[in-house]
Structure formats: structure tokens, C-alpha cells
């Protein structure tokens, strides 16, 4: 069993993110180590472990220390081709990849730029945590950016904070990566859910801004043009450079982040280069203001 004595936490930016050293994520963890990781996680929101070689089973075993594993979401039939890959053999795992074998994608969500979003924010119980392990990387780009949404909340002008208190927003997932959600037609068949614009993080008790550019479509009970203008303002605050840690991946990196208080995005990368990351999650719970 590993001892917590060996664990070090080094912040990676002023916004969020910290590197953890002295933990082998492939081996069993003591309760003290789990507590130390949780403590660092609550403070830094995104944790980075470098140089890890983890099997799928080891990744799932590690993530299980932090809660019940989340299932990969099944897209509705009409959107299925955007979400399913042929090499995903475990319902708890999503391969984030652009790789194709015989013309068939092995995973999903793996191509090009990915706008800021919350993983499964369009469901009633958004994942608490996401864990991502780098297996193949392009020569450049494909960085993952994380924004600290506690800081975004704190930076909101008082009038905006007041005006949006008690409001909910519609989150909708069309399985796109860099295009606004479209609610002009009938979206009843597209996965969606309403969440408070501001949520209280169930563990830290801190308030966080809970909207993102990719999937948040409307502030409930507001005329469309007013809602769009306010959401744009919220996105701009949420995506301020000073709130962002940008992770430049190295092979063997293992990242874990908290979806209740961060949003994340991916920068573009060369189309013809391969990129493969293995993702798993911890199931969430309903969120309240
Ligand atoms: C994800 C995700 C970003 C990336 O797996 O949820 O958003 O950099 N990935 O591939
Ligand atoms: Mn994501």
C-alpha cells in the first residue's frame, strides 16, 4: 500500500490544476492517500499525474475510489453514429479518438476543436468526475483547457448575479463538438435537462457558474434574444484567460477533473494525426442552487 507521505501537490496555474507526484495510480490506495487526493482535488479542481501506464481495468479501479462509475451515455438512434465507436467494449469507458479502422471510428468525440462544455451536463445527474488517460497524441495541438467556474461566478457583475439567481438554463446535447445547440425546432427527442445557472457544489459548498458554450441553449423563462445576450456574457466570463489552465498532453498523462466547478475544451490539431484517450467517469447527482 502506498503512503500519503510520498504525495506532493504542485499547482500548475493561478486558475486551477495541480500535478500530483508520488502516487502510482495502478496500485491500491490507502484511505489516507484517497483523502489527500480528494483534498487536493477540492482545492485545484483538475489533477494531473504524469508518466502513468494504466490498463483499462486499473483506470476503472482507481476511479472507483471516488464514487460509482458512470455509464457511457447512449445517444438517441438518429444521433448514434456521432457517439459510438467499434472498440468500446466496456459500458463504463469512452474512447476519445479520431482513429478509424476500416473506415469505422473506434471511439467518439475525437476530432478537431471541442468547445467548452460540461460532461453530461445535459442529463439530470451530470458526472461528478471525469478521468482521462493519454494513449496516442498528435505532434501538436489537441490541448485540453479547463476553466475554474468558481472564479467565473465570483467575477460576475453584481447585477447579473442578482438577475440570474433562481434561474435555470436548458442544456442540450446534439453530439456536436463546435457548433451551438439548436433549439429552433422540436428538441423533445434530443437529450436535454434544465439546471440552475448557479449551482452550489455539494462537497465544497461553494457557488459555481454552471453554463457552457456548447450545450447551454436557453435561460428558462427569458425571451430568446435576451437569453442569448446574457449567455454570451456568461460564456465570455467563463472563458477568460485568467481562469484557464491549458493542459499540453504527454503520453502517459492521467487527468481527473471535477465537472461541477469546471468547464473544459480542446484545441484543434492536425486532422491526419492520431489521437486516443481513454475516459471514464463517476456518476453524479441532481444539482441545486
Ligand atoms: C472528454 C473531453 C477533451 C479532449 O473526454 O470529455 O472533453 O481533449 N475531452 O479530448
Ligand atoms: Mn468532455
What does this structure look like?
By secondary structure, the protein is an alpha+beta fold. The chain has 2 domains: 4-147 and 246-282, 4-Layer Sandwich (Double-stranded beta-helix); 148-238, no CATH class. Helix content is 18%, strand content 28%. The chain is built from 5 helices and 19 strands. It has an 8-stranded mixed sheet with strand order 1-2-3-17-9-19-4-7, with helices on one face. Strands 8-18-10-16 form a 4-stranded antiparallel sheet. It has a 3-stranded antiparallel sheet with strand order 12-11-15. Strand 2 (18-21), helix 1 and strand 3 (46-49) form a beta-alpha-beta unit. The longest helix has 15 residues, at 224-238. It is globular. The chain binds N-oxalylglycine and manganese (II) ion (MN). Residues 117, 119, 264 line the site of manganese (II) ion.
CATH architecture of the largest domain: 4-Layer Sandwich
Q: Number of domains in the coordinates?
A: 2
How would you classify the quaternary structure?
A: single chain
Order of helices and strands: EEHEHEEEEEEEHHEEEEEHEEEE
Could you say which structural class the secondary elements and strand pairing correspond to? Answer: alpha+beta
Amino acid at each position: 500500500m502506498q503512503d500519503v507521505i510520498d504525495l506532493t501537490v504542485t499547482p500548475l496555474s493561478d486558475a486551477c490544476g495541480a500535478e500530483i507526484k508520488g502516487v502510482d495510480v495502478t496500485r491500491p490506495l490507502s484511505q489516507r492517500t484517497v483523502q489527500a487526493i480528494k483534498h487536493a482535488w477540492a482545492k485545484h479542481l483538475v489533477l494531473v499525474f504524469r508518466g502513468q501506464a494504466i490498463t483499462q481495468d486499473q483506470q476503472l479501479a482507481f476511479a472507483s475510489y471516488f464514487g460509482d462509475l458512470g455509464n457511457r451515455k447512449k445517444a438517441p438512434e438518429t444521433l448514434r453514429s456521432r457517439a459510438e465507436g467499434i472498440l468500446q467494449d466496456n459500458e463504463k469507458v469512452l474512447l476519445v479518438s479520431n482513429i478509424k479502422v476500416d473506415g469505422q471510428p473506434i471511439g467518439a468525440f475525437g476530432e478537431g476543436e471541442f468547445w467548452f462544455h460540461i460532461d453530461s451536463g445535459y442529463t439530470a445527474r451530470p458526472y461528478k468526475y471525469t478521468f482521462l488517460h493519454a494513449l496516442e497524441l498528435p505532434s501538436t495541438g489537441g490541448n485540453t483547457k479547463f476553466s475554474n467556474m468558481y472564479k467565473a461566478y465570483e467575477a460576475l457583475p453584481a447585477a447579473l448575479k442578482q438577475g440570474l439567481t433562481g434561474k435555470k438554463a436548458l442544456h442540450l446535447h446534439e453530439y456536436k463538438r463546435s457548433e451551438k445547440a439548436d433549439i429552433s425546432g422540436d428538441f423533445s427527442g434530443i437529450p436535454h435537462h434544465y439546471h440552475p445557472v448557479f449551482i452550489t457544489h455539494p462537497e465544497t459548498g461553494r457557488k459555481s457558474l454552471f453554463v457552457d458554450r456548447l450545450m447551454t441553449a436557453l435561460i428558462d423563462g427569458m425571451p430568446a434574444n435576451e437569453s442569448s445576450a446574457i449567455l454570451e456574457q456568461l460564456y465570455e466570463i467563463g472563458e477568460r484567460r485568467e481562469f484557464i489552465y491549458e493542459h499540453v498532453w504527454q503520453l502517459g498523462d492521467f487527468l481527473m477533473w471535477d465537472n461541477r466547478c469546471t468547464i473544459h475544451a480542446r484545441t484543434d490539431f492536425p486532422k491526419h494525426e492520431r489521437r486516443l484517450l481513454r475516459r471514464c467517469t463517476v456518476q453524479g447527482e441532481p444539482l441545486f442552487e
